[in-house]
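Appendix C reproduces, verbatim, an entry submitted by the partner laboratory led by Prof. M.T., so that reviewers can inspect both the input and the predicted structure.
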Amino acid sequence: MAGATADKLNQAESNILEKHREYLAEAKPKEDLLALNQAALARFETLGFPHRKHEMYTVVNTTEMVSTDFALTREGPVEAQAVQSHIYSGCEKSCLVLVDGKLSSTLSDTSAFGDSLKVSSLVDALSDASLKQYILETIENENDVFACINSSFFNSGVFLDVEDKTVLETPLQILHFSTGSKEAPVTTHPRVLIRVGAHAEMKLIIKYAGQSGNYFVNSVQDILLGENASMTYTQVQNDHADAWHYSKTRAELKRDSRFRATNASSGCKLARHHYDLFIKEPGAELELNGISVLDDEEQVHNFIRIHHEAPHCNSSQKFKNVVSGNSRSSIDGTVIVNQGAQLTNSDQLINNLMLSDGAHSDNKPNLMIFADDVKCTHGTTVGQIEEEQLFYLKTRGLTAEVAKALLTKSFAESIIQLIQFPAVVKELGNTLLRKLEA
């Protein structure tokens, strides 16, 4: 690592340590939380900020973000109307709003669930020994330095508990709303832990949006699915263009559970989604889909690790990226089939549509197989609009611009239509797909 780069990283790490001292002096976390904050800080010091040769960041340039001295956000003034504009139709009474990382009781409403959904402070949930142990273990084994930073600074967070055999018919929306800053850049560290009990079902939409830019949202969400539990999950990244976005989603699947997830990203200064998904027991099924539509200087990077740790399980991934201008996307996805995970079925497909010479897409599908009776496939494509398709539409009377827009929208819609929430599909038609219009 070059001397100048090392100096920048050392200075950035010193800034985090100083900010952590400020946090401890101001927040004065209780003993249980303090132990977790300190364990996370120790892990952060072990990992250190990544450089370009780091496994997780070979195609992600974090130089600007790491060298930016972010101030810890103190919840800013929020425009209620701006928040309401991001609540999906049908979720008006089934939404949790986190403003600058903290749950807002005045802007949230979960009355649609009655007593079926338990909502509490994640800090209070630490009184549950099993949950505290789970969080401690994830911190001690954390592989992502930015998730370590989240754990070092989290002092609130949300815990959601769906008891055994409970079926939540109404989707829950969690809105992460950043007020941003017109002065020094600011950072927030939202934290959500969700436990879905045995034979329970939950539908979840997570959306990120900003009132103004100049912020870094660094979030972590943990999802624990019990035996035969089911979650339908959609994440929408719609941050302000002048923002940084990091999210880590960690999930554990028990016997016969199902996790079906789709991520839709519009990009920003730098957006990175990290999925660490563990299939722990037989019969579990995992589906992960993603769509990014990028222009100008926007970036979206996906880092995915799917761990098959039990036999008779299935996983599938399907990602599509549309990149134009000088935008950049990447997908680094590895499926790990551990010893003993026999009769695993896994497939991964990454398709990229390049609309300009300045756009860039990096793709790294990978398989690590330590069992001998499995069926695993992966593949990736990078290309432009096919001339034959374009020619056909032009013969039907369409201009080249309209034909190009139609083909690109069709490419992206194939992922968007997999989302099971009509209000989200409609919105993405007005945001992501609108970016593709001639």
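Residues 3-27 form the longest helix (25 residues). Additional entries are available on request from the coordinating office.
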